[in-house]
Amino acid sequence: MTSETDRGLLLRIAREAITAHVCVITASAMERAEVLDRPGGAFVTIHKQRELRGCIGHVEANEPLGRVIPRCAVAACSSDPRFPPVIASELPHLLVELSLLGPLEPVLAPDEIEIGRHGLVVERDWHRGLLLPQVATEWRWDRTTFLAETCHKAGLSRDAWRHGVQLWRFEAEVFGER
After folding, report:
1. Distance CA 20, CA 113 (A)
2. Residue 23's beta-bridge partner residues?
3. Nearest-angstrom CA–CA distance, 117 and 96
4. Which one of 28, 54, 57, 108 has the fewest beta carbons within 10 angstroms of its own beta carbon?
């Protein structure tokens, strides 16, 4: 579990990276903290008036959070193909949410997936899709729908989870600006 102090720091780094990118200014220097050196996968989700405005992440825990968080924050505000880039007038209306990912665990049977606890990754060939744990809860999906929507996100048929895909679950520590 990440301390409240470290959560605040990570959120501030994400917010500053977004602001610096959108306003074309130099981000302030990062302070030193142990959490920034911790390798981890993470997703940065941006909301505007309770609606999704961007979400980009890095799944593997092969880089320090001090690099992953600002890079994903900039990508979420500028490169999510579902949305136009964030503009300066939107900045006061945005809320940033972070999802720090736990390790991927193979799923052998659907009943190993707990709604609200696990996120999912599905993969077949070059198709890969990921949905964070909070997505199923927010949309009030059951396990079957969660599996189908993750397959759909990967560009596969909604029933592909029944037919030889690789499937992983993960937990995430989710926190955000209020």
Report:
1. 39
2. none
3. 21
4. 108
Candidates 31, 12, 152, 159; CA nearest to 96 is 12
Of the options 3.40.50.2000, 3.30.1490.150, 3.40.50.800, 3.90.190.20, the CATH number for the domain spanning 105-171 = 3.30.1490.150
CA distance linking residue 40 with residue 30, whole number of Å: 18
Fold: same for 4-101 and 105-171 = no
Which 3 state secondary structure label does DSSP give 109?
coil
- Quick: pLDDT tens for 17-68: 999 999 988 877 777 899 999 999 999 999 999 999 999 999 999 999 999 9
CA distances from 59 to 39, 52, 66, 103 (A): 11, 20, 15, 9
Global model pTM greater than 0.90 = yes
- Which is nearest to 103 in space by CA: 45, 40, 174, 37? 40
List the chain domain ranges. Answer: 4-101, 105-171
Residue 175: which residues within 8 A CB-CB, separation 6 or more?
Answer: 2, 7, 11, 97, 98
